Amino acid sequence: HKAKVEAMTLDLASLQSVQRFAEAFKSKNVPLHILICNAAVFGAPWCLTEDDLESTFQVNHLGHFYLVQLLEDVLRQSSPARVVVVSSESHRFTEIKGSSGKLDFSLLSPSKKEYWAMLAYNRSKLCNILFSNELNRRLSPHGVTSNSVHPGNMMYSSIHRNWWVYTLLFTLARPFTKSM
Questions:
Q1: Could you give the residue numbers annotated as active site?
Q2: Does residue 119 or residue 20 have the better pLDDT?
Q3: Comparing 48-62, 98-112, 114-128, which segment has the lowest mean pLDDT?
Q4: Which UniProt keywords apply (predicted)?
């Protein structure tokens, strides 16, 4: 009941917006004990952001990654602090390595010809987990922990709204899955 809440604008599809947000937050000179990276798009048609990156990858992963990098000093100063990265079990159904066995950056922000919405989502969520694990490895000695979480199967949201087939699949699967 004593909490003071203030909304701030952040567009993860714009790295410039992420930078402005981080600067505005830092100017407030307040601690940051918890940062939850939860925004996501799913099943979105292929499009590029103003930064010329595929939108699912940028919104679901790169925007959060950049935000955490920009706020890392605030998180360290606010210790104990925690970063929670909301991922998905669907990360298990993809790969980000090419035929050489090394990271293939073209898989992360594919061309329109190579794009499939479900794979883009899965890859972005795999990146979330890898990022969270590495963030925890690097920052936990400084009092900042990072965890990635799966929110639960078929959470009630409109994340599937971009294609009627996804909506149908979510509707049919929902009675057979656990949810909050």
A1: 121
A2: 20
A3: 98-112
A4: NADP, Oxidoreductase
Q: Which domains does the chain have, with CATH numbers?
A: 15-149 (3.40.50.720), 153-179 (no CATH)
* C-alpha to C-alpha distances, 138 to 33, 37, 86, 132, 146, nearest whole angstrom: 17, 18, 19, 10, 10
5 alpha-carbon distance from chain centroid: 23
> Tokens standing for 104?
């293939």
Alpha carbon distance 80, 85 (integer Å): 17
What length does the chain have?
A: 180
Return the SS3 of 165. helix
Q: Tell me what percent of the chain is helix, strand and coil, each rounded to the nearest 5.
A: 45, 10, 40
